[in-house]
């Protein structure tokens, strides 16, 4: 089982009355870096847990290379879902040592690379003898990243890897990720809600909104479809007729409209006296998913 | 299976080592002061010997079901493998600790030292099911901890009961004419307890999710 | 190569444009190897596939060619091809916007052409 497609179809998951995932379909092809982008509470971690057989779901299927993922040891050995380490465990604080987790990883993860793990330990200046509750949030994130990278799993999933890291470590993380990807070409799936920083690193993006994957595909292709058109309000309105307008902002007679359309549809606008600018991935996400207040 | 066994062994190894040292120390002390030990505190530790393995397994089963199950699952272990791996580990440990107890029961006599008298040899065969019952009850308690804390407590109580049964059984096997059917009744109860707790563990693990 | 990327146009287009600039400046000469996708990815912190897209764009335009197993190299006559491509884009990219801006400022034909002449004159005296 070398490189296979991780696929989910018709996933439904509810927590009590909260219907988190609705008939969700997603396809993760091998050899790419994916970004799973969604707001807080959108269900990213839940989805990732289901994709890796760590969470249950009410209906739908999850397969890897055509084989079901649930309770399938062979398949599970090819996937790695490196989660946030919790500060507390049932019954108190997490007094396990970093070394404990690393040892568990070396036992359970069939592709574990001990030397790589050692190099990363030194790079991150992590003391394996330190207990989890004594680590800062950033250091806990680093352990998560370490386990994900050193797992050398053909499909490696990292849940909000950059969230706890400071800006210097975030840059270093993206560098390490790209180096690893350059060397191994393995599949990475990163979930994040800090979009713009990571945008250049993703080849494909998945937008999770209201329980479904509303956009899936190459990031650059997606971004190429969105533009802002701004200028005098009546000019902007004239130019936008027939185009899909996502949102508008008005300041006096100045109006800015976010539109989604192809290059050809834009040519009349280019001839008019309006400014046309591209939208970056973060702005595209906000335009598509910024419809209700965050939970 | 290999990975689970090695992972769990790391948790139990220190406990096993401590038990071994305890057994060694107690036997040594008894050999040196056979008479003088009876009424001292050390003496009571010595005469607790049969239930000590159960105690150790009990204590170390606390964290297994939530923490270690979580870690194992998050690193791609299947629930089935963890369940059977853990059960196998319990069985092997119980066997091993029973064997060690037997060792310390007979070795002093063979070496010409004062014979060990913390329990009657007739009690040996019963060590296995009773110790296992206590360990299983503790496991079930641990498994329920996250989802049903009340029920979890009930199983810990059962675990203590199993220990009491063990202590009682060690007394009762020597005088069957006095206690009648109590010996095999208690044995039956232990076996039922093992089955029930195994069922509870299986049920909990089957539904477990990583938090 | 431009030091950093901006969000004014797609990344792979910026990569391609940056390499074109370098070819015009003589940073990469004919038959010399240009950076690989992994090297570009490392320097710009972008996905290697995106870098690859930029390189492929230049291959399609005949500016670079691929040597199997070795990498991408500057094609003969690349500098000329880049100039030609930019010449045809010059009208759309610079001239038309300039005319439009002039119109919105209310400049008439004469005034605009005078400005152009002046700029050319200044350029020649440098």
H/E element string of chain B?
HHHHHHHHH
| CATH fold-level topology of the largest domain in chain C | Arc Repressor Mutant, subunit A
Strands of chain B, count: 0
Oligomer: heterotrimer
Compute the average pLDDT of chain C.
Answer: 89
Q: Low-confidence segments of chain C, ≥5 residues, pLDDT <50?
A: none
Provide the CATH superfamily of the largest domain in chain C: Winged helix-like DNA-binding domain superfamily/Winged helix DNA-binding domain
Give the topology string of chain C: H per helix, E per strand.
HHHEEHH
Description:
The complex is a heterotrimer of chains A (295), B (211) and C (126). Chain A is of the alpha/beta class and 295 residues long. Helices cover 35% and strands 32% of the residues of chain A. Chain A folds into 2 domains: 6-221, Rossmann fold (3-Layer(aba) Sandwich); 224-289, Alpha-Beta Plaits, CATH 3.30.70. Chain A is elongated and about 65 Å long. The mean pLDDT of chain A is 91. Chain B has 211 residues and is mainly α. Chain B has helices at 2-32, 41-47, 52-61, 64-74, 79-110, 124-144, 149-172, 176-179, 182-206. In chain B, helix 5 runs antiparallel to helix 6 (124-144) and helix 5 (79-110) runs antiparallel to helix 9 (182-206). Chain B starts with a helix and ends in a 5-residue tail after the last helix. The mean pLDDT of chain B is 85. By secondary structure, chain C is mainly alpha-helical. Helices cover 64% and strands 6% of the residues of chain C. The longest helix of chain C has 28 residues, at 78-105. Chain C starts with 10 loop residues before the first helix and ends with a helix. Classes of the chains: A alpha/beta (295), B mainly alpha (211), C mainly alpha (126). Chains in contact: A-B, A-C. The A-C interface holds A 32-33, 171, 174-175, 178-179, 181-182, 196, 200-203, 220, 223-224, 273, 277-278, 280 and C 5, 7-12, 37-38, 41-42, 44-50, 53, 100, 104.
């Amino acid at each position: 089982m070398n490189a296979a497609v991780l696929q989910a179809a018709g996933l439904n998951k509810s927590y009590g009355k909260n219907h988190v995932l609705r008939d969700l379909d997603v396809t993760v092809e091998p050899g790419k870096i994916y970004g799973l982008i969604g707001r807080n509470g959108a269900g990213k971690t839940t989805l990732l847990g289901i994709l890796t057989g760590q969470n249950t779901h009410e209906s739908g299927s999850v397969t890897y290379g055509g084989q079901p993922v649930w309770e399938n040891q062979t398949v599970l050995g090819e996937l790695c879902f490196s989660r946030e380490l919790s500060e507390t465990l049932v019954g108190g604080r997490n007094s396990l040592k970093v070394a404990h987790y690393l040892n568990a990883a070396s036992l359970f993860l069939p592709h574990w690379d001990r030397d790589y793990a050692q190099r990363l330990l030194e790079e991150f200046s992590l003391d394996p003898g330190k207990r989890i509750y004594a680590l800062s949030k950033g250091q806990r994130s680093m352990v998560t990243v370490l386990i994900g990278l050193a797992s050398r799993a053909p499909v490696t999933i990292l849940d909000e890897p950059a969230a706890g890291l400071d800006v210097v470590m975030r840059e270093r993380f993206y560098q390490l990720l790209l180096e690893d990807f350059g060397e191994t070409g393995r599949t990475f799936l990163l979930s994040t809600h800090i979009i713009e920083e990571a945008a250049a690193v993703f080849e494909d993006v998945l937008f999770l909104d209201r329980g479904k994957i509303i956009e899936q595909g190459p990031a650059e292709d997606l971004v190429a479809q969105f533009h802002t058109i701004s200028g005098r309000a009546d000019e902007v309105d004239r130019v936008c007729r027939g185009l899909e307008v996502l949102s508008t902002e008005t300041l006096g007679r100045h109006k800015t409209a976010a539109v989604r359309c192809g290059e050809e549809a834009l040519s009349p606008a280019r001839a008019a006296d309006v400014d046309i600018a591209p939208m970056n991935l973060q702005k595209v996400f906000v335009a598509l998913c910024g419809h209700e207040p965050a939970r | 299976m290999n990975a689970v066994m090695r992972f769990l062994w790391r948790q139990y190894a220190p406990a096993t080592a401590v038990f071994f040292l305890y057994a060694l120390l107690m036997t040594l002390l008894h050999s040196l002061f056979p008479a003088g030990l009876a009424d001292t505190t050390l003496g009571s530790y010595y005469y607790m010997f049969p239930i000590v393995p159960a105690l150790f397994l009990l204590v170390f089963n606390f964290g297994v079901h939530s923490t270690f199950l979580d870690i194992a699952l998050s690193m791609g272990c299947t629930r089935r493998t963890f369940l059977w791996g853990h059960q196998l580990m319990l069985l092997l440990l119980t066997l091993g600790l029973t064997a060690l107890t037997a060792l310390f029961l007979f070795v002093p006599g063979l070496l010409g030292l004062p014979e060990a008298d913390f329990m009657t040899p007739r009690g040996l065969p019963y060590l296995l099911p009773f110790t296992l019952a206590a360990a299983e009850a503790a496991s079930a308690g641990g498994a329920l901890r996250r989802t049903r804390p009340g029920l979890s407590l009930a199983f810990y109580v059962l675990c203590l009961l199993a220990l009491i049964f063990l202590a009682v059984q060690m007394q009762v096997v020597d005088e069957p004419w006095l206690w009648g059917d109590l010996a095999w009744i208690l044995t039956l109860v232990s076996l039922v307890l093992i089955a029930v707790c195994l069922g509870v563990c299986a049920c909990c693990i089957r539904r477990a999710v990583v938090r | 190569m431009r030091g950093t990327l901006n969000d004014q146009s797609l990344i792979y287009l910026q990569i391609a444009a940056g390499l074109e600039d370098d070819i015009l400046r003589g940073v990469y000469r004919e038959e010399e190897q240009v950076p690989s996708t992994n090297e570009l990815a490392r320097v710009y912190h972008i996905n290697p596939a995106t870098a690859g897209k930029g390189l492929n764009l230049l291959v399609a335009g005949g500016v670079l060619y691929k040597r199997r197993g070795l990498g991408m190299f500057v094609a003969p006559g690349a500098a000329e091809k880049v100039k030609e491509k930019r010449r045809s884009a010059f009208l759309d990219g610079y001239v038309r916007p300039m005319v439009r801006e002039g119109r919105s400022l209310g400049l008439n034909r004469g005034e605009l052409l005078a400005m152009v002449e002046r700029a050319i004159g200044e350029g020649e005296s440098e």
